[in-house]
Specification:
- The chain is mostly helical.
- The chain folds into 2 domains: about 70 residues; about 45 residues.
- About 75% of the residues lie in helices and about 0% in strands.
- The longest helix is centred in the first third of the chain and has 27 residues.
Amino acid sequence: MAVRIRFFKFGFIIGGWVSLILGVIGIFLPLLPTTPFVLLAALCFSKSSPRLHDWLLHQPSFGPLILNWEQSGSISRTAKIAATVSMVILFSITFIVVNVGLVIKGSLGLIGLSVLGYIWTRPSPSGEQSLQPQPVLE
């Protein structure tokens, strides 16, 4: 049984690192979304290593985003605006540059609107305060 638990912990650690790396690449490559990969990394680390999870929560760029999501399922107004602006720009470029049929463009537009609808229906943190991570002792 202990071997099985270690196997799953190892899998979650590997999954967390892969997700985090993809999230960081997504900062520079507009085709990869950063936020879902960082949240997935936080989930994987929370299931496998309190130390890695705590380390991720204390990262200045990712910590507040993760804490808002974990504690209240909220997305800051700044993150919502950034997501909206980047999606509108990237989807517009795609619609202009990529030569596909109207059905594909319509489907892509519908997906984009659905994602934006989901983002904007999430609550914003109360008072937009910056949450502070609590240290985790192993």
